[in-house]
Write the structure tokens for this entry.
Amino acid sequence: MQATPATPEAHAALILAVQAEGRQIAPLSDADPGFDLPAARRVAHAVSAARRARGERMVGRKIGFTNVTIWDEYGVHAPIWGPVWDSTLHPADRPLPLGPLIEPRIEPEIILRLGRAPEPGMGPEALMGCIEAVAHGFEIVQSLYPGWRFRAADTVAAFALHGALVTGPFVPVPDNARARWAEELGAFGIELWCDGALMDAGAARNVLGGGPMAALAHLVADLAADPLAPPLAAGEIVSTGTLTRALPVAAGERWSTRLAGLSLPDFALGFA
């Protein structure tokens, strides 16, 4: 078994190296049973520091494991978060290359763009007032650990499983429509299709029982409790977690969604 590095910086260097090489490693917690969430957050921040040092720019956050219906499948029973980078945000007008990603899976998500920074303790109405625009798209997650076997701390250390984010058009949320958007974001449904076959269906309530805004509220509180994490800022995007199961994808496939009860267009994406 490969020796586990002892410092956050050494863990970060290993994680970045294996991701760049397209290979996998045993979960960090296998070699170090004491590797817990606080230790994983220190590794995650070291990873972010290394990415910034090589010129990448953080454009937002992704929240993972907000879908309570899949917690038992992965053995992770609370949300996690990680940065979205300018290097992992991709246009929707061309097929997404899967080559750099490891055991990729697709997650249909709602993405929020912040018009102002939310603050800890904000109620639902105030939090909704921070949303400038809403989009729908896909996060492609990946696993540096074979067979998607890990503990929660392992996922936090490894980019929060983030591989790529592709968004559809952002639809503005005007002040006079915030109540409608809040209602829709808590009650819509979705179908996930691949090459004309229905693969899964989901609903807003899968996301922490209350939809994407419940995920945002959780993220704001989580960031406030992490002294190393930068708070959310105006202009950031927040991908709020999968609405269905995360399913494997392969080059040549075309995946699409059908939304019901939400004022956003359906979304489609091919893979190369």
